[in-house]
What does this fold into?
Amino acid sequence: MATTTADVMVAALRASGVQRVYGIPGDSLNGFTDALRRDGEITWEHVRHEEAAGFAAAAEAALTGELAVCAGSCGPGNLHLINGLFDANRSNVPVLAIAAQIPAAEIGGEYFQETHPQELFRECSVYCELVSTPEQLPRIFDIAMRSALARGGVAVVVVPGEIFLADAAHSVEPVPMWAASPVMRPDDESLAAAAEVLNVAPRVTILAGAGCAGAHDQLIALAEALKAPVVHAFRGKEFVEYDNPYDVGMTGLIGFSSGYRAMEHCDALVMLGTDFPYRPFYPEGVPVIQVDVRGERIGRRVPVRIPLVGTVRDTTGALLPLITAKTDTSHLDQMTKHYQRARARLDKLARDRRNDSPLHPQFVAATIDRLAAADAIFTADVGTPCIWAARYLRMNGSRRLIGSFNHGSMANALPHAIGAQASSPGRQVIALSGDGGIAMLLGELITLRQMHHPVKVVVFSNGALSFVELEMKAAGIVTFGTDLDNPDFAGIARAAGLFGARVDKAGELEDALRAAFAHDGPALVDVRTARQELSLPPKLTYGQIKGFTLYATRTILSGGGGELLELTKTNLREVDIE
Ligand SMILES: Cc1ncc(C[n+]2csc(CCOP(=O)(O)OP(=O)(O)O)c2C)c(N)n1
Ligand SMILES: [Mg+2]
It folds into this structure.
């Protein structure tokens, strides 16, 4: 029988299948953490920085599709959650955040640790409410849980510490809640209009995103009927790329030339469950059909002729019977050939050269891919690890790839891996971390040990904020402030109780990775990788070319010629630009 409002909260979480809460305790949160302790079923996932709790919950929700929960104490405690919550909300995954607040009677008086979380979290949530009385709490809590699940995003419940401890006088049996998957398709008229466009356009290209989850068969059937090359956005990679003869790679700033080409040379574009943000990558002057469950997202990147509100699975299923199957495969053939050439060039960059030192990051990523389990969960840091993940990790329908793809925050890989491992204890979880990224939330290595999460962390130690250097070069700015004077991360890992190995030469990589993957516990492999690896966007615009030339001139003028030589040396190999 529940006795406090916090007990009611815990009972509600348990009824909906929540198994863990990520966070760090604190005075104002004590009523809640104590209720968890009394309950004994939901585990307390102790992290070392609340930001990690937000990221971990985001990864868990992305993997399970169900509610994941994090909590922070008042003021700085829950303020630390915020970046992880932005990530979760932008990824449209259901996360509930419990933000403890200072005593209600003190609000408004600049009390110790006072903030106004219901204002601070407004922008990174679909629902955010302050609980002012104990009676209000159970209902607000229910609404919050349901909002997170139904709208796919973050719900924040702000609770003054003493309210957790108040008597739950009239508690009722909690109602179980889970993510719904409604059947949702557009009206017949809209479908007919879409079919009309597609049936007359000789060359159709599909741009597929994360909304294709659970719709692989329908996607392939549509591509087959339209003889359409399928380009994907980064978040679509894990759902789109595998078992897909129509795949022509990724588009975007870190994509392939073939992905860009297929979008550029089409007579109609079909967008399936994607909100791909970069407008210059869209074709101009061709009709666009966009399918999205969130109608308000349609047309915000490119003018859309036919908006189709519905799930990709149901909409594609309803559209297919209206499509006259095409027989001309020339567009498809041209684009897939282009993709094969781009792919071959990328694979060549990942060749094993045993004496390479530092190592080429492409080789590191390709080796991780080769040695990883068939159902591994990968997480990748924003920065160049994202590029190597996008290009060298092969998905297969079982593997997963989690990243901060919409929010674009550094240091996401390790805390995402914590949430992945906590919610999938039997699976291999591999974090591809940058040396900047790992340092930013380094304390979470200790979480791996304390919580017995056997995550495998591979650090791409390139001694720099390399991705930023690329951006600076492309903009014609001399690189500045991007050096990283790194410690021995493997040594740090060992000191924290992890398995740690350092790799300086390509020939040492495979043994080190095998040992780390076989280790019965958390492990870190610190790989010294080349700093300057060219990973340019697929289409070099005039501005970018100008930028590079400008960069070269400025670097020489400012005495940085050595660095330029280094860049040339490392990159005087084939790259995937045309
Ligand atoms: C929290 C945060 N700070 C800064 C940035 C800007 N930024 C994007 S990538 C990057 C460099 C990442 O460095 P590292 O982790 O070493 O990866 P690398 O690109 O060197 O492989 C930075 C600073 C960001 N995206 N997020
Ligand atoms: Mg780096």
About this structure: The first helix runs from residue 5 to 15. Confidence is low (pLDDT under 50) at residues 571-578. The CA atoms of residues 234 and 250 lie 7 Å apart. The radius of gyration is 25 Å.
